[in-house]
Amino acid sequence: MNKIIGIILLLIGGFLIYQGVERKDSLLGGAAEVGTSVANKVDGSGRIPKHYYYIIGGAVIAAVGVGMAFRGGKK
Questions:
Q1: Which domain holds residue 11?
Q2: CA–CA dist 69, 62 (Å, integer)
Q3: pLDDT (tens digit, 9 = 90+) per residue, 34-49?
Q4: pTM value?
Q5: 41: CB partners within 8 A, 6+ apart
Q6: Is the pLDDT of residue 72 over 70?
Q7: Is 47 contained in some domain?
């Protein structure tokens, strides 16, 4: 059962990474990068665009999925 859940998490993580990269490469993602850069320079606060949350979250979920799917079970 853990292997199935791990594979599902791996797929979800891959999908989130894909969505984040696609948004980053889009016109909207470019505008978010510029807007975030300007806002960070105006008030000095640390912001990151939303597509980075997708990429980071997807990587974490995929790593958990790999750990669940491929770790050794009880023998």
A1: 2-70
A2: 10
A3: 988 898 889 888 888 8
A4: 0.80
A5: none
A6: no
A7: yes
The answer to the question of residue 75 being in a domain is no
pLDDT digits (tens, 9 = 90+) for 4-62: 999 999 999 999 999 999 998 999 888 988 988 898 889 888 888 888 999 999 999 99
Closest of 16, 48, 56 to residue 29, by C-alpha: 48
Per the domain annotation, does 37 fall within a domain?
A: yes
Q: How many CB atoms lie within 10 A of CB 46?
A: 6
Tell me, yes or no, whether 31 lies in a domain.
yes
Measure the CA–CA gap between 62 and 8, rounded to whole angstroms: 9
């799917």: which residue's tokens?
69
Domain total of the chain: 1
Distance between CA atoms of 19 and 61, rounded to whole angstroms? 14
Classify the C-alpha dihedral 12-16-22-27 as positive or negative. Answer: positive
